[in-house]
Amino acid sequence: MMTDCFALLDEPRRPWLDAEALKEKFLARAAALHPDRFHGSSPSEKEEASRRYAELNGAHARLRDTKERLAHLLELELGRRPRDVQQVPAATMDLFFQVGPVCRETDQLLAGRGQVTSPLLKVQSFERGLELGEKISGLQQVLTKELERIEAQLQTLNPAWDAAPAVGSPHRTEKLPLDRVEALFRESSFLARWRGQLQERFVQLAL
Fold this sequence. Notes:
Blueprint: H1 5-8, H2 19-33, H3 43-64, H4 66-78, H5 93-112, H6 119-163, H7 178-206
Helix pairs in contact: 2-3, 3-4, 4-7, 5-6, 5-7, 6-7
């Protein structure tokens, strides 16, 4: 049976959650379930406490991440995970054409670093690395703002969940804007992936 991460953290099943409120609930439950509190218990009780603690950690990690929260929400409502789509959403196409070249330029620079022996070329490589680092930092800020935009849109969808028929009702899914949530899930998936790719290269440039 699928674990309902929303129920586990006593959160309403919605597209948008208050991150601070979620964190507070998690910390309160984590403190009560921490394995250290069961050091005098039987092995089976310790094992159960560890299992519940790990489950709680997993639920919190999933709900605080936009992409994972939406995937989980869709899975709960539709009984399946949203399909992986390789095509870049139109809303993020401009960013795709900005992120791709910067990643390729950074990879080329990193690949050639070990072959540079001339002091002049080393200086040029260093300066180019600084330029690319600034570009990456700027793009990361843009991606973060785009993810914040998605969160704001998700917040406007919460009332649909508040007004929807109860879980288990045959009319529930038809009353929910699941197509819109799935579209935002795809957008957030690409944005989060690109931000991760940029961060990886930013770290490599700093080494």
